[in-house]
Structure formats: C-alpha cells, structure tokens
Amino acid sequence: MAFDFASEIADLKQTFASIREVSNIDQLRSEVAELTEQAAAPDLWDNPDEAQQVTSKLSHRQSRLEKLEKFDERIEDVELLVSMAEDEDDDDALQEAQDEVSKLARELSDMEIATLLSGEYDERSAVITVRAGAGGDDATDFAQTLTRMYVRWAENNEYNVQELDTSYAEGAGVKSATIQINAPYAYGTLSVEAGTHRLVRISPFDNQGRRQTSFAAVEVIPLIEQTDHVDIDENDLRIDVYRSSGPGGQSVNTTDSAVRITHIPTGVVVSMQNEKSQIQNRAAAMRVLQSRLLQLKHEEEEAQKKSLAGDIKASWGDQMRSYVTHPYQMVKDLRTGYEVNNPSAVFDGDIDGFLEAGIRWRKEEQQKAEEENALS
User: Major place of localization (predicted)?
Assistant: First the structure.
C-alpha cells in the first residue's frame, strides 16, 4: 500500500495544533531567558549541584522551545518535498519524505508525552530504589537486573546517574539498590515504574533447571530541592555509622563512612555508602530522607482526599509488569496492556514504550476519576 502523505501530514498538523494549544510558549520563552541569565552568573559553579541543575533545565527548555517554534516550518518543508518529488516522480525523494514524516511523528509523540507531565514534582530528578522480594537468589539477581535497566535507560538518554546505596546479597545480586537520575522530568517520566515487577524464567541457580518466579519492588520518589521544606526534628532520628561493604560482604572501606538514618516516627530508613566520607554520606542520606518524607506527606494527603471523595478506581495493583523468558519471550505491562517480545532489549534499557504507555494510562485514569467525582 502506498504511503498516504496527505493523511499523515494532516494528522501531524492536527496533533501539533493540540500540543501548541496546551503549551505556554510565552512562559517557556520567559523561563529560557531567566535560566540563561542564571547560567551566565560568574559564581554559578561555586555550587556544582545547583549549576548542574540550572544548565540541565536550560538545555531541556531550549530544546523544547526550539521544537515548538520550528515544527510548523518543518511540516511545510516536508510538504514541499513531497510535492516536488511527486511532480518529478522521484522515488528517492519520496522515501526521504516518508522517513521525515515518520521522524516528525515520533517527535510529536515525545512532545505530547511532555504535555502530560504536569504534576507538582514531575519536573524533578528521580531517586529510584529497587528491593528484592520473594524468590531467593533469583529475586536478588532480578533486583540487580532492574537497577541496571534503569541505569542503561539513563545512559541511553545521556542522563547523569549517581549510585547512592547498594546492599549486596550474600549470594547473587542485591537486596536493594538506590540510584539517582539527574534530568528534567526524570521523576514524572519514571514514576510510572513504581510497583511490583515479576520475573518468570528458568533459574540459573536451580541445578535441576526448573522454572522460577521472583519479584522485586520499585520505588520512585522526586529529588528534594532547597525550596522544599519538611520539618525533621533531630531527636526523631537515629543515626548509625558502619563500614561500607561490597559484593558477598567484602569490605571496601576501612573506616566507618557508611551512614544509616532512621526516622523513628515513620520508620523510614535511609542508608548511604557510596560517597567517600561520613559527612558526604550523611548529607546525601538526609536529602533522600527529606524526599521520602515529602512523598509520604503527599501520599497521606492524597489518601485523605480519596477517602473524602470515595473509592477512585485508579489503583496500580500489586503486580504492574511481568518479564517472561521461559517458556516464551515477553514483557507485558499489566495496567496498560503494552507488551514486547524482546526481554533482553528491555533489560538493556529499552523501556520508552512502557514509559509512554504508562504516562498515557495514568492521565486517562486521572481523567476518569475526575469525571466520576464531578458526577458524584
């Protein structure tokens, strides 16, 4: 079947018109100007973390603004290319035009997803913790595989990744691992990964080669910023120091530099061992503790709203995704129905399809809940 340029280009125009309508381009220009001024400050790099945040936000907004401002022109260019190619019966030029239309469609999909990330903390960097669940060595190995999956996703997108804490299992893999992905909208994008993940495979740890099901839990929280505020009473904290350890209990540090902070009223525990000094680990642990307490505060507020509004059917459920490598190859998201037949690629960081489907699903569920509340 011949490629229907007229229909495809019409769809591009219609979709872009909708995106442009909900995108505040004037505000985006203002933000770019303000961030450009901050980036030019002579003392910017006196605080490297803040400087990284400013330059990253500036780059992200400049890229988004440029795409919004030039997209109409790019559609006109491809229309002209199609017209000239058809007049001259130039198959090579028509193929070039088809490739460009497909590229524009992919970029529009990314832009459309960006418009759906409008939550209070969606713009933040993300702190991801993966914990092994039921399944013994298979579960701890699975937890390590999932952690690597998120690291590879970040690296594929050229995002900065920091390893904050790793608790190695006595056998294979990790009991838990915490990483920080520094990028605009990392939290909003990755928050749909939160939940229970399930792996079905032939266990490499079973000498009889039997099939094993194992589980891992993924927690995603927004990174705390200096403008946030959660009151923490020092008397509510229990702070323990210990020596960092590597795989199999191997000691990797001869000093008590690792830090574990317990927030006694909530029971929230944060461990940090990847920085070089106890002071650095304590500061990093306090930031993650602040983030978790902030998340807990908002979850309590949301729970109160839901109890007042009645039951909203927008639950993620216990198992949100299954990864199967035997007896067939499949990764399927149980909320959205999105699935692929290449677990190896997924474990290597190819999760954009799952993220996009999850973000769209979440928005649809939110809209349904709002409609139900309006009718009640």
Answer: cytoplasm
What residues form DSSP beta bridges with 220?
128
pLDDT digits (tens, 9 = 90+) for 189-240: 999 999 999 999 999 998 888 899 999 999 998 887 655 667 788 889 999 9
Angle, alpha carbons 224-228-231 (nearest 5°)? 100
Nearest-angstrom CA–CA distance, 57 and 331: 33
- Do residues 59 and 107 both lie within one domain? yes
298-307 contacts at long range (C-beta below 8 A, 24 or more positions apart): 298/120
**Alpha carbon distance 258, 275 (integer Å):** 8
Q: Which amino acid is at 50?
A: E
Strands in the chain per DSSP E: 126-132, 160-168, 174-182, 195-202, 211-222, 237-242, 258-263, 268-272, 319-324, 330-333, 339-340
Q: Assess whether 64 and 27 both reside in one domain.
A: yes
Instruction: Locate 79 and state its tokens.
Output: 């229309």
Q: Looking at residue 157, which CATH number applies to its domain?
A: 3.30.70.1660
- Which residues fall within 8 angstroms of residue 40, CB to CB, at 6 or more apart? none
pLDDT at 247: 62
In a domain, 121, yes or no: no
Rounded Cα distance between 146 and 14, Å, is 38
Domain that holds residue 240: 234-305
The answer for 267, left when phi > 0, alpha when psi is -120 to 50, beta otherwise, is: left
Length of the chain: 376
If asked whether residues 366 and 262 sit together in one domain, one would say: no
- In this model, does residue 357 exceed pLDDT 90? yes
In whole angstroms, what is the distance from residue 143 CA to residue 172 CA? Answer: 10
Q: What CA–CA distance (Å, rounded) separates 22 from 304?
A: 30
The pLDDT tens digits of the residues spanning 93-151 come to 999 999 999 999 988 888 888 889 888 889 889 999 999 998 999 999 999 999 999 99
- 10: amino acid identity, one letter: A
Q: Cα separations (Å) of 253 from 173, 175, 242, 302, 337? A: 20, 19, 10, 42, 46
Q: Are residues 57 and 184 in the same domain?
A: no
